[in-house]
Design a protein that fits this description.
alpha/beta, 12 helices, Rossmann fold, five-stranded parallel beta sheet, about 300 residues, globular
Length: about 300
Amino acid sequence: MKKKLLVVLLALTLAICALAGCAPADQSISPSAGPSQTQSASITAVDFMENSITLEQAPKRIVSLTASNTEMLCELGLEDKLVGVDAYSDYPESVKELTIVGDYIAPDIEKIIELKPDIVFASNQLQAELIEQLSSAGVKVAASEPTSYEQLLESVQLIGTLGGAENQVIEEIRTRITSLESEIKAQAKGEKSAYYILSYGEYGDWSVGPGSFIYDVMSMAGLKFITEGMEYSFPMFSIEDLVAADPKVILCDSNVAALEDLAAAAGYSELTAVKDGTVIFADGNIMSRPTPRMMEEALRLAKLIWEE
């Protein structure tokens, strides 16, 4: 658990650095609406870093550098084209049999090149240096991982377009996502103050803020996060302010802590939700990946939040 948590925290730190140096937390970059076909059947799309990627034909060999990209590719029916994935790609189970090209933070560039991919699907600003290195080596790379809910539908179109998915499949997934959005919103019976625990204690009191995927989606369920108005998408939050606010709903990443851990932690033990044993634990693996499955987990959480 500690190794995974350290990776998450490093990713959060990189996210803050990227946002501080590049754009405000609520700024998003949209890919093109769909494929651009030429007489030679080439495909063109613009990714989340505003890079235009053109493929002469639909790819036959694909490498994914994030677990969410891997999952999305499989949702789109493109698993048979995958030849390499990052170390955290574990869903569906079958992708564990593929070649591992390193982890999210430090992929093996040589191994990726050796796989001769027609295209590589990477994260976004968090892997900007890697994207530049691969592009310089002549590898086609798309920054395709959404950072907000607004980008989720766009990522389906982007990955589906460049991956060569059937238009019908792309549209089915987009429809499924919007349907889940409606179901999540339908659960809300008002508004409740909330806080999401990404980490705590010695690892720092990190949470979700405006512009982050979890914040966007769970706000649909009638949650008013006490991190509202903060500058970063993944802020560190004062434990003193958390205790003072004592939000009605406490959500916690299941990889980070159990109820007994929070009950023994300074500050957290004073929260009403911890004392009452009403902390709601989210599947950390699913909630950290912006995919349709994350929307399904958000719906499960929304039902728990508003159950009578």
